[in-house]
What we know:
Shape: rod-shaped
Oligomer: single chain
Largest sheet: 5 strands, antiparallel
Amino acid sequence: MTTRTQPGVKPSASAGFTLLEMVLALVIFGMIAAVVYSAFYFGHRAVTSGERAADENARTRLAEEMMGRQLRSAVYYHAIHDEDHIAFFLGYSDGMMFVTSAPQSRGGTGLAAVTYRVVDGQLVVEERTTFTPDDLYDAPADAATDRAVLLDGFSSLRMEYLPREEVDLGW
């Protein structure tokens, strides 16, 4: 690098940066940039993970609230099964079916036959608002059923029911 000097002034030997100083400055700048980038990267991952967890918790809370409300609103509905008039509630190892007075459809009014079950790793709810005591156990093939996936990632669902001798038939 050549420098211009004024007449009568000697150029100084330290009039610039050496190659070693430039390399050290670039290495230090690169290290600082890497630390700052990694801090932003890990911060972004933490925010994304937190949002995902909050969304999953909200969906779980919504599903739990919906199931609880519908179970608390279960109706002692008489169905006909094999010529017997019995209260309708079916419990399976992976779900349940009952009649509720708090359906999700029709603005939450009227009665609906509700089924909660696990299908292919998903908690599914099905509602049928048109039914009779005769077809609760065997729904017609053309019955209109609303279906929604409440939650993903289920491997199993465990339901426990009171033994028959402890059941209060008076509701």
